[in-house]
Amino acid sequence: MPEDKKIIESKLLSVKDITICDATAQMITKARRDGVELCFDRAASMKPCPIGAESACCKHCSMGPCRMNSKDPYGKVGVCGATIDTIMARNFGRMVAAGTSAHTDHGMAMLDLFREVVNGRNTDYTIKDPQKLLDVAASIDIPVEGRSLQDVANDLYAELERTYTQVNGEIPFAKRVPPKTLETWRKLGIVPRGAMREIMEMMHRTAIGVDQHYENITKQACRTALADGWGGSMVSTEISDILYGTPSPVVADVYMDVLKEKQVNIIIHGHEPNLFESMIASVNSPTLIAAAKAAGAEGINLVGMCCSGAEMMARHGIPHAGNFTSTEAILVTGAVDAMGVDIQCIKQGLAKVAECYKTPLFTTNTRCHIEGAEHIEFDDHNPAACTDEIVIRAITRFKNRSLPIEIPRIVNTGVHGFSYEYINYMLGGSFRGSYTPLNENIINGRIRGVAGVVGCTNPRVKQDYVHVELVRELIKNDVLVLLTGCAQIALAKASLCTPEAACLAGPGLSEVCETVGMPPVLGLGSCVDNSRILTAASEMVRTGGLGNSIADLPVAGAAPEWMSEKAIAIGQYFVASGVYTVFGVTFPLVDNTKFKKLLFEGLEQQGLGKWGYASDPHEIARLMIAHIDKKRKALGIDKTRERILVDMADRRTLDAA
Ligand code: XCC
Ligand code: SF4
Description:
The protein is α/β, with parallel strands linked by helices. The protein contains 26 helices and 15 strands. It has a six-stranded parallel sheet with strand order 12-11-10-13-14-15, sandwiched between helices. Helix 6 (about 85-120) runs antiparallel to helix 8 and helix 11 (about 215-245) crosses helix 22 (about 530-545). The longest helix has about 35 residues, at about 85-120. It binds FE(4)-NI(1)-S(4) cluster and iron/sulfur cluster. Iron/sulfur cluster binds near residues 78 and 80. Iron/sulfur cluster (SF4) binds near residues 58, 59, 61, 63 and 64.
C-alpha cells in the first residue's frame, strides 16, 4: 500500500507534512527560526531501528543481544535457542507489563490518597461525590443500605486494595464483567489475581529460560493487561471521581490560544489529578492573584496538556493547550511562565526547549525527575507548598519576560465530560436513566455501532491527521465514537466535539445526536478513563439485545497514532475483553509468524477480541466498520448499507457550521 508507506516514511520535513494542528505548525516554523529542535526534527533525523520496530531482537541476557532476520523469521534462533515467536511474545509481554504498571501505579497513588482522606489524616482533599462512592461500593457487593458513608468508605478502601496486593482469587472489579466474558476468562485462566502479582509474574516468565511458549506467554499478557483495564485504571477513574467529582458535560476551549499574553500562564502536564486539583486551588488564592496583579498581570491562567489536561477538561472545563506532540511546541510561544509535570509522557526534550525560552520547568513527583528541570516535590499532605511555589515562580518569570511572545490565535470550543454515568442519564433521562435507548438505537440501526478511538500522537505520523480522518469516516457511517486521551484533543481541535458536528454524521447517528443534543463524538477523559468504555460496554451487554458477552457487541477500538507502552497494555486489555482493536503507526511484530497469527486471529477463536493493524485512516475505518457489520450480522440486526467516504463537501459543511 504505497499511501500507507508514505505516511510513515516521509521524512516529515515540510511543516504541512508534520501536523494538521495549525498552532503546532506555526510553532514549528518559529522554532526553526529560533534554531530550536523539537521532537519532529529528532524523528526526521533518526530513522526507527528496523529490527526493533519489528520486535525481532532480544536483549534479555548477555549471551545476546540476538537479532533475528524478519525476512526469514524461522531461519535462525537466539543463542539460548529462543524462536522468533518466543522473542516477540516476550517483548510484547514486557510492553504490556510496563504499560500496566504505569496505569496501576497511578491508580495506586489515587488509592493512597483515598485511604488518607478516609482515615482523616488528609484534610486537604475531601469526598466530593458521595453518591459515586456508594455506587462503586454497591457494584462490588459491599453493603450500603443504612450504613454510614465512613463505614462504606473503609470497606471500599480495603476491597480496592486487593486490586493490587491480592495473591490469589479474582480482582474486585471482576464482579462487573459480563458473566459470559468472565466465564471465558476463567476457562482460559486469565482472570487477574492482583496487579502486583500479574506484573511480577509477567516479568519473571519473560526472563531468559522461563516461559518459552508464545501461547502461554500470551495468556499471562492477557491476565496482566486485564489487571490494568479492570484493575488499576478502573480504580484510578473511580477513586478520582469519588474525590474530585464525576464528570458531566462541560464546555471547554482547546488549542494554543488558551494562553493569555497579559496573564501569568501556567501549564500542568502529566497524568495524576491531585497535582492539578491543588493547582486549581493555588491559582484561585486571593494572595497569589494579588501578587500576579502587582507584577503587572491581569490574572493567573491555568491550562492543561496531555492526559491530566484531558481529565481536568472533562471534569472542570479547564482549557487544554494540546496533546503529546505539542508539549515542546507550546513552549516556543514564549508565553508559558511555568510548566509543572508529574508522571508519564513527559519528554526529556522539554528541559532543553524550556531553557531556550526561559520557562521554568518543574518536576513534582518522586517517581519522575528530569536532569535540567527543578524538582519541587508534591506531597498530598501539604499540596499547596508545591503548587503555590510554582505559581510564585511563574509570577517572577512573568515579571522578567524578555523574549518576544507569539501565541497562535486559534481556539476551538467543544463539549467534554461524558462519563459512563452521564451517558446513562443523557440517553435515558433522569427518571429512567439507562442504556436501553443506546441499545435500541443500535438494534434499529440508527447507530451502526460504537468505536473507541484513543491514544497518543506520534511524531512518526502527521499529528492529528489519522485521528481526525478516521473519526470523520466512522461518524459518517453512523458509528458513535468515544474518545479519550490525546485522541480526544485531536478531535476537539478539529471541532468535532460539538453538537453541531452532528451534521457530519450519517443520517441515523445525526438524528440521534440532534434528538439528544449531543456531539457524534464523546470525550470521556484521560487514558485511565478508557475504563469508562469497559464499564459502558458491560452495561450494553447487561441491558440486553446485543448478545451475551463484550465480544458479541458491534464495537471496535483504535489507537491510530499510538506511541506508548501504555497503549499496548490498553489494546491488549480491550482485546482480552472481547474488542477488535486496530493500531496505526506500526505494529511491533514480524509478518507471517505464529505469534502474530495468534494476536490477529487466534484470540478471537478463543472467545476474546483480536488485534488489527493499518496505518492509513481509511483502511482503519474499513476494518472497524467491517467488524461492526460482522457482529451485527451475527446478532441478526444487519441491514445492507454502503460504506460512505468523507468528501470535500463534508469538510465545507463543518466549516460553515
Ligand atoms: Fe501519553 Fe496520556 Fe498517549 Fe497522550 S494518550 S501520549 S499515553 S498522554 Ni494517554
Ligand atoms: Fe539471545 Fe536467548 Fe539471551 Fe535473548 S535470552 S539475548 S534470545 S540468548
